């Protein structure tokens, strides 16, 4: 078996470093994260000492430049490339098509680097739609990997089946040109909201609008008077807006004609179920089932990060609630990154 200490990785579209942290936890040396969003740099490097953050737009960055910048070799069997590109265009969540159009084919820019360097391993994580929607480049990407001689495993995984305490369906791909690979088998270690947040897990009760200036960031967004009254009326532990939706003062006009749509909005999480998918807007009760199971507020930044499996020591550096929530919601859950990293390490003993 190969010495796993020799495995090195480059994390494309690294954001604040969720996947980097997970791969490092598995024993892979992530030498760099690459992302166009420089606001993630301080958070990435603060929590992943020794991994450098490169502010680059890979649509304009060349493989030759990266070869020079990182001093990595082509055809290195111990090299891992991870490419978890922005995925809004292929998501079922409504988003600005004009904005997301610019990033919909970034996987093909990532492919240029794979083709040039021919790393031993390739990892991709993305929304399920990237593998099924018309016009998606993923089919072409997979075909090209196979033409390059990679063994490719891919599928849709539900992360709550891997010990991540949230429902999060994702397309996952692992490819190798040096070993046979598979998607990790679910470990069925189901975790719930109660398992990771709440006072028993080190989260003191707080009010809406609390600003935690410590590194723990147990910060919760403000609520308008009306929204505070709404959440106060919402039953604890999984309650929704049924109790107040028809009251003249509290009804939501945007849903007046179809009160059954987007019914999770303004809802509370359940204690004994996984959380819903932690998105970039998890700090707002109007953007999903993001209210605390019993406290009258949205979940805090640290609670969202914990549901994403970031360790409590992970320090987020941003200018406001929205900027930090974006880092957290966009991340690959570090625990899942660790599981994928261990799967790659395990595969090394199985030659194609």
Description:
By secondary structure, the chain is of the alpha/beta class. The chain has a domain at 4-187 and 334-347: 3-Layer(aba) Sandwich (Rossmann fold). It is 27% helix and 12% strand. A 7-stranded mixed β-sheet has the order 3-2-1-4-5-7-6, with helices on both faces. β2 (29-35), α2 and β3 (52-55) form a beta-alpha-beta unit. It is elongated, with a radius of gyration of 21 Å. The protein starts with 7 loop residues before the first strand and ends in a 5-residue tail after the last helix.
Give a short overview.
With 352 residues, the protein is of the alpha/beta class. The protein is built from 11 helices and 7 strands. It has a domain at 4-187 and 334-347: 3-Layer(aba) Sandwich (Rossmann fold).
Identify the notable features of this structure and list them briefly.
elongated; 27% helix; 352 residues; alpha/beta; Rossmann fold
Summarize the helices and strands and which ones pair or pack.
Elements: E1 8-12, H1 18-26, E2 29-35, H2 41-47, E3 52-55, H3 63-70, E4 79-83, H4 97-101, H5 106-117, E5 121-126, H6 138-147, E6 151-158, E7 169-176, H7 193-196, H8 225-233, H9 301-307, H10 321-330, H11 334-347
Helix pairs in contact: 1-11, 5-6
Quote the distance from N terminus to C terminus: 13 Å
**Full CATH superfamily name of one domain:** Vaccinia Virus protein VP39
Instruction: Supply the number of helical segments.
Output: 11
Major sheet characteristics? 7 strands, mixed
CATH architecture term of one domain: 3-Layer(aba) Sandwich
Provide the gyration radius in Å: 21 Å
The structure class reads: alpha/beta
Shape: elongated
Strand order of the largest sheet: 3-2-1-4-5-7-6
Query: And the CATH topology of one domain?
Result: Rossmann fold
Helix content: 25-40%
Low-confidence stretches: none
Order of helices and strands: EHEHEHEHHEHEEHHHHH
CATH class descriptor of one domain: Alpha Beta
Average predicted local confidence, pLDDT: 91
Strand content: 5-15%
Count of distinct strands: 7
């Amino acid at each position: 078996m190969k010495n796993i200490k020799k495995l090195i990785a480059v994390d494309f579209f690294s954001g604040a470093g969720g996947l980097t942290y997970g791969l490092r936890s598995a024993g892979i040396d992530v030498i760099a994260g690459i992302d166009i969003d420089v606001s993630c740099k301080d958070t990435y490097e603060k929590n992943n000492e020794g991994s450098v953050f490169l502010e680059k737009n890979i649509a304009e960055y060349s493989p030759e430049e990266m070869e020079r910048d990182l001093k990595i070799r082509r055809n290195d069997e111990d090299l891992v490339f991870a490419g978890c590109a922005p995925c809004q265009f292929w998501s079922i969540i409504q988003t600005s098509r004009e904005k997301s159009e610019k990033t919909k084919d970034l996987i093909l820019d990532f492919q240029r680097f794979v083709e040039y360097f021919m790393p031993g391993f390739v990892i991709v994580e993305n929304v399920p739609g990237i593998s099924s929607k018309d016009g998606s480049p993923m089919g072409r990407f997979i075909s090209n990997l196979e033409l390059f001689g990679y063994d490719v495993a891919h599928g849709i995984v539900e992360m709550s089946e891997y010990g991540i305490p949230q429902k999060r369906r994702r397309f996952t791909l692992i490819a190798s040109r040096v070993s046979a690979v598979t998607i990790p088998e679910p470990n069925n270690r189901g975790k719930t909201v109660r398992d990771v947040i709440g006072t028993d897990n080190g989260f003191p009760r707080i009010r809406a609008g609390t600003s935690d200036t410590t590194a723990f960031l147990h910060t919760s967004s403000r609520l308008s008077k009306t929204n505070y009254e709404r959440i106060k009326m919402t039953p604890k532990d999984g309650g929704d807006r049924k109790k107040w939706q028809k009251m003249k003062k509290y009804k939501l006009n945007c849903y007046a004609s179809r009160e059954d749509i987007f019914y999770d909005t303004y809802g509370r999480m359940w204690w004994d179920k996984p959380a819903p998918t932690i998105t970039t807007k998890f700090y707002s009760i109007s953007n999903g089932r993001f209210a605390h199971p019993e406290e009258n507020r949205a979940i805090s930044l640290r609670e969202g990060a914990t549901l994403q499996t970031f360790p409590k020591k992970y320090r987020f550096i941003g200018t406001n609630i929205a900027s930090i929530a974006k880092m957290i919601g966009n991340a690959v859950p570090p625990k899942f990154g660790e599981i994928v990293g261990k799967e790659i390490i395990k595969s090394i003993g199985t030659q194609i």
